[in-house]
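Sequence design from tokenized structure. All designs in this work follow the same two-part layout: the structure record, then the generated sequence. An example of the structure record is given first.
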């Protein structure tokens, strides 16, 4: 069974940039098979990786919701869903990609969402490593979109409020009995000289900082121009910090 890493955090912290950069690091530095899952309804991970997708699991969800009552009683719905999801799996040279997308209608999607959790479990077992770019905030944990992972990685900005959010995510995950072997925090956009202060604030909350990432104008320029984060120059402070984090995570 492969290693599963979930990357979470509040919006605007650089969660997707961190996810994409870690995925790209693995693709460039070893021969592991990689499944990238964009579980954020905003679906920004493909663009950050420089990839284009035609269809999301949200689209499949809508189709199945409409078809559900029309299916024969003997239909193996789980197998049908697996077949449809396999059809939208974006297979790259080194990275396979699935985007969850969002539902468009007002109906209840409990049945399909349950089946999708099983799909994620099934698909991730076929890869050496699976990285999930999770939805921002805490709601995805309440819905248990993410269940058991090896490493929960929380991206935060360099603020006390950001670290408090990371602590709430950890507490909620534990209360929901979501299993993880490791729980780490990545502090992004850290001003030079603030590294020790951030680590102390984190330690006081019982959090472990696995790495700090300095503010990098290359990232803001890339975002402004709509360029993939993976096209940053190799000497980018952001990517250099990602390299160190990946090494600590043994990726």
């Amino acid at each position: 069974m492969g290693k599963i890493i979930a990357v979470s955090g509040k919006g605007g912290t650089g969660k997707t940039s961190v996810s994409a950069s870690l995925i790209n690091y693995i693709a460039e530095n070893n021969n592991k098979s990689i499944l990238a899952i964009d579980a954020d309804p905003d679906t920004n991970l493909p663009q950050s990786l420089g990839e284009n997708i035609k269809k999301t699991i949200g689209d499949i969800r809508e189709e199945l919701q409409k078809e559900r009552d029309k299916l024969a009683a003997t239909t193996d719905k789980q197998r049908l869903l697996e077949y449809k999801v396999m059809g939208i799996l974006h297979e790259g040279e080194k990275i396979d990609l699935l985007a969850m997308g969002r539902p468009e209608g007002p109906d209840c999607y409990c049945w399909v969402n349950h089946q999708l959790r099983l799909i994620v479990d099934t698909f991730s077992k076929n890869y050496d490593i699976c990285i999930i770019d999770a939805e921002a905030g805490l709601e995805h944990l309440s819905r248990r979109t993410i269940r058991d992972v090896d490493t929960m990685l929380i991206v935060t900005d360099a603020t006390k409020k950001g670290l408090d959010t990371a602590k709430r995510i950890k507490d909620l995950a534990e209360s929901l009995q979501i299993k993880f072997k490791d729980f780490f925090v990545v502090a992004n956009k850290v001003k030079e000289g603030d590294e020790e202060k951030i680590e102390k604030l984190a330690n006081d909350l019982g959090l472990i900082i696995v790495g700090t990432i300095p503010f990098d104008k290359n990232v803001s320029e890339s975002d402004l121009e709509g360029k993939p984060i993976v096209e940053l120059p190799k000497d980018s402070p952001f990517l250099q910090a990602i390299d160190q984090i990946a090494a600590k995570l043994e990726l």
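The longest strand covers residues 180-190. We note this feature because it recurs in several other targets discussed in the main text.
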